Amino acid sequence: MSNWAYNLDLLAQNGVLDFDAPSFVMGTPPRYGNPSPFGGDVPQPIKQPERDEFKKPDETNFVHTPMWKKALFAVVSTSLLIYGVCKLKAVGKFFKKCVNKLFGKKP
Fold first, then answer.
1. Is the pTM of this model over 0.70?
2. Which of 37, 39, 45, 65 sees the fewest Cβ atoms within 10 Å?
3. Neighbouring residues of 27: CB distance < 8 A, sequence distance ≥ 6
4. Could you say which DSSP state residue 84 is in?
C-alpha cells in the first residue's frame, strides 16, 4: 500500500479520522469502519462564484502610479544611462591608452 494511504490509516487509528479514508478517496469498498466521512449521502459541492468578488467590474488597472513619478523615473533613468555611457567611453579611452603603452604603439 502506498505511503499516503498508510498515513490516512494512522490518522484513523489515532482518532483524527473516523472513516476509511483511502477507500473513500479511491472509490473502493471500505476495508473497515465507516466507508464515508458523511455517514450516508455525499453532499453536493458548494457553488463557487463566477467572478472575482474583490475586483470591481469597471476597474481595469489595479496600480495607479501618478504622472510625476513616471516623469521623475524617466529623467533619472535617462540621466543615469547618459552618465554610464560617458563613463564607459572614458574607461575605453583609458584601456586603449594602456594597451598602446603596453605594446609600444603611439596613439
1. no
2. 45
3. none
4. H
